[in-house]
Amino acid sequence: MRIGIPRALLYYQYYPMWQTFFEELGAEVVVSPPTTQAMLAEGSARVVADTCLPVKAFLGHVLSLVEQCDRIFIPAIRSVKKNTCNCSKALGLPDMTKAVIPESPPILDIDIDINRGKRVLYQAIYKLGRHFTWNPFRVRRAATAAWQAYLNYRELMSSQGLTPRQTIEKLSDAPETKGEMSSSYPAPTRATIALIGHPYIIYDEYISHRLVRRLETAGIKILTPKMLTIEELESAITRLAGRAYWAYEEEIVGAGGHYLQSGADGVIGIMTFGCGPDSLMMDMVARRAARPQATPFMSLTLEEHTAEAGLVTRLEAFTDMIHRKKRRQGSR
Q1: What pLDDT was estimated at residue 57?
Q2: pLDDT higher than threshold 80 for residue 186
């Protein structure tokens, strides 16, 4: 059985775990290609204009997999931590996909809700595994291997300072995408900038207008939320917000609170237009950045019609400001 996984939304959060689970059960994993203008246009044509940009891109990825696989894996992730909730787009993604892409292959969905307890979670995992085998012990082994793959993925990023894309490449011993990575001869490091935002924005080269590559080419060392340990994130969240209600916003708040205090010469917050949770959480980070002696902070809001030239101009102005500040500090 060929299982399709869209290279969008939670792909950079969980892909090594998903890949391990399905391959342990004997399936072949097929990943959609990187986002393109045509892919985004096709996804946008299936939904109303108010739908957020990441979901439009996700639907475009699903469409690209229609003829490539037997099943498409789209989980409904309600919560990944006690007393937190996920964004509505992640909760209803399988049903939305079935409604707007009727030609899609059968969708493999699993309802993940930590708030309902471990027993319900284990039942959901076994139910998913029954599509491949009726042997519960085999499903359990696959789930255990998948969880270990996820822990290895997180540990590798935090211990070696790798981005999710670099980590996926390292784990698979092959380039994740052809022709998309930074130059083999990067410029000497002139400053360190932390990018805080969802991985499906930061690492999607089409949506982010190759933001990571632009900064690396300019000699900027990139830091991301995934490079922090869970303990570092939770400590910063407590200082900045007390508790973040939305599950995946915790990384943004925690990383923002951490990097504004140490480790970075500047912080760039990245979000998409129309995302309610992002706008609230990023505002918390911006308020902390407005305090005296805080690390320089810039917020970028991306949407379908974001002009690349305008984004480049803002990046150049921000990095120039950081370089001037470092030169002044060095001359003292």
Answers
A1: 92
A2: no
Q: Look up tokens 């690349």; give the residue.
A: 308
Q: Which amino acid is at 233?
A: L
Its pTM stands at: 0.85
Element (H, E) at 60: helix 53-65
Query: Cα–Cα distance between 62 and 105 in angstroms, integer?
Result: 9
The topology (CATH level 3) of 185-331 is Rossmann fold (3.40.50)
Letter string b/e over residues 17-35, b meaning 16 or more CB atoms within 10 A of that residue's CB: bbbbbbbbbebebebbebb
* pLDDT tens digits, one per residue of 141-155: 999 999 999 999 988
**HEC string of 288-316?**
HHCCCCCCCEEEEEECCCCCHHHHHHHHH
Q: Are 2-155 and 185-331 in the same CATH fold?
A: yes
86 burial level (CB within 10 Å; 0-12, 13-18, 19+): buried
Q: Beta strands of the chain (E only): which ranges?
A: 2-5, 28-31, 71-73, 76-79, 107-108, 111-113, 191-196, 220-223, 266-272, 297-302
Q: Where are the domains of the chain?
A: 2-155, 185-331
Task: Give whole-number Cα distances, 261 to 176, 264, 266, in Å.
Answer: 33, 8, 10
Task: Classify domain 2-155 at the CATH topology level.
Answer: Rossmann fold (3.40.50)
Strand order in the sheet with 191-196: 220-223, 191-196, 266-272, 297-302
User: Across the chain, what does the average pLDDT equal?
Assistant: 84
State the Cα angle at 234 between 239 and 230, rounded to 5°: 150
Q: Are 168 and 152 contacting, i.e. CB atoms less than 8 angstroms apart?
A: no
